[in-house]
Design brief:
Elements: E1 12-16, E2 20-29, E3 32-42, H1 51-68, E4 75-80, E5 86-92, H2 97-111, E6 122-132, E7 135-144, H3 149-159, E8 163-169, H4 170-179, E9 191-197, E10 202-208, E11 211-218, H5 222-233, H6 237-252, H7 268-271, H8 275-310, E12 319-322, H9 329-339, E13 343-345, E14 352-353, H10 370-379
Parallel strand pairs: 1-4, 3-14, 4-8, 9-12, 12-13
Antiparallel strand pairs: 1-2, 2-3, 5-7, 6-7, 9-10, 10-11
């Protein structure tokens, strides 16, 4: 009987990104959601090839965050990075789920060159029916990971002192962090385009209602933006990155209606600079990243074109930018111009009480928390608070 009255802490969401580690733990209070605990830790400048050092730093950082930020329990919901997932779009005839899973195991072995693939190495999304010549087939987003990868992540979590409740693909968690706003019946046909711009790559997700229909990773991200800014302004990469972080931090401090938060005009050294000098610097940085952002916009346009041809009748309305690089000023303007669609910065924690989130900027968009928010929502009570479970999706380890 005592067990019936025990307060059960929700799992901790853990997102290990290219430049930082983010952790969230949510709870429901009455009919509202609130953050019980949250914290972020940034990686120092470590060569990307030094994987062992990065792993040791991650273990040390997570243990410290657990000790200092009021997280309850050690159960965790964890995102498998998209960079480590093989993804293919294939078309399959209609068949029962059991037969489809077996057929897709064979497809994964051949297409990903993963002989003897185990069930926890393969997942899929059924994006819906498409026409192929005179036939109707199912568009399947097939995902696979190499042997031993899941075990490596389980070992990492164990070293951090964490017990995994669930491991799922990063793009699935990312979209869940945004699709909780699709609650009306009319939203079943809403077409969402989420562009998550990170340090090393950009993830493009297209969905119809709550069903993901397209995934793509593009090798353009913050590191390339920093590199071209460094070359354009004759700075080191470290100096260019610090400059970009200052500008994006100022952008992220804007309130949700797009106006600067009162009394908040960026870092002190940036505030003290003459406005003409700040404007000139912004334009120089804008010109520096223009080529990379336009290349990214062209890749996104190809993704949307594929979706338009494959799923007839899709109508794109807006593009939502998430990720730590979403505040890059050139992204909204240039991507919006190239796609002829409005671009907005996502607010994955909109409607959530974030007073427990120690970031010093709770009025901003918090677009960089999209993946972690999706993981936290999935972890609560073993499922997303507003999630419809579909038997044809097989995704988590």
């Amino acid at each position: 009987m005592l067990g019936l009255f025990k307060i059960r802490s929700e799992p901790i969401a853990l997102d290990i990104g290219g430049d930082s580690i983010k952790m969230l733990q949510m709870q429901r209070v009455g009919g509202a959601l609130r953050v019980r605990a949250g914290a972020r830790w940034r990686f120092p400048d470590v060569p990307s090839t030094d994987l062992r050092q990065r792993r040791d730093l991650a273990v040390m950082a997570v243990r410290e965050l657990l000790a200092r930020h009021g997280f309850r329990g050690r159960r965790v919901v964890y995102a498998l990075p998209m960079s480590q997932i093989h993804i293919k779009n294939i078309r399959m005839p209609s068949m029962p789920d059991s037969q489809l899973t077996s057929a897709l195991m064979l497809e994964a072995q051949q297409r990903f060159e993963l002989p003897g693939i185990a069930p926890d190495q393969m997942g899929y999304l059924n994006a819906g029916e498409v026409r192929q010549g005179a036939d109707i087939r199912n568009e399947i987003i097939l995902m696979g990971v190499s042997g031993g990868l899941i075990e490596e992540h389980l070992s990492l979590l164990s070293d951090m002192g964490l017990s995994p409740d669930r491991i799922e693909p990063e793009p699935v968690a990312l979209f869940r962090g945004m699709n909780r706003f699709l609650r009306r019946q009319d939203d079943e046909n809403v077409v969402s385009v989420v562009v998550d711009v990170g340090v090393s790559a950009t993830r493009v997700i297209v969905a119809r209602g709550r069903q993901i229909v397209f995934l793509k990773s593009i090798d353009i991200g913050g590191r390339r933006f920093t590199s071209v800014v460094a070359a354009h302004l004759n700075l080191s990469c470290v100096e260019a990155n610090e400059l970009r972080m200052r500008v994006m931090k100022e952008q992220s401090r804007q309130s949700r209606d797009g106006e600067p938060a009162p009394g908040d005009d960026g870092p002190a050294d940036h505030r003290d600079a003459p406005r003409e000098a700040k404007d000139a610097l912004r334009w120089s940085m804008f010109d520096a990243v223009r080529g990379e952002v336009e290349s990214l916009a062209k890749e996104i346009a190809l993704c949307l074109r594929y979706c338009s041809v494959t799923f007839r009748g899709l109508r794109f309305v807006t593009v939502t930018l998430t990720g730590g690089e979403a505040y890059e000023p050139a992204l909204r303007e240039l991507i919006g111009q190239h796609l002829n669609l409005p671009c907005v910065i996502g607010q994955p924690l909109r409607g959530v009480d974030v007073s427990g989130l120690d970031l010093g900027n709770r009025r901003g968009h918090l677009a960089e928390w999209a993946v972690c928010t999706g993981l936290a929502l999935r972890g609560a009570n073993g499922r997303h608070f507003n999630e419809d479970t579909h038997g044809h999706d097989r995704l988590s380890a």
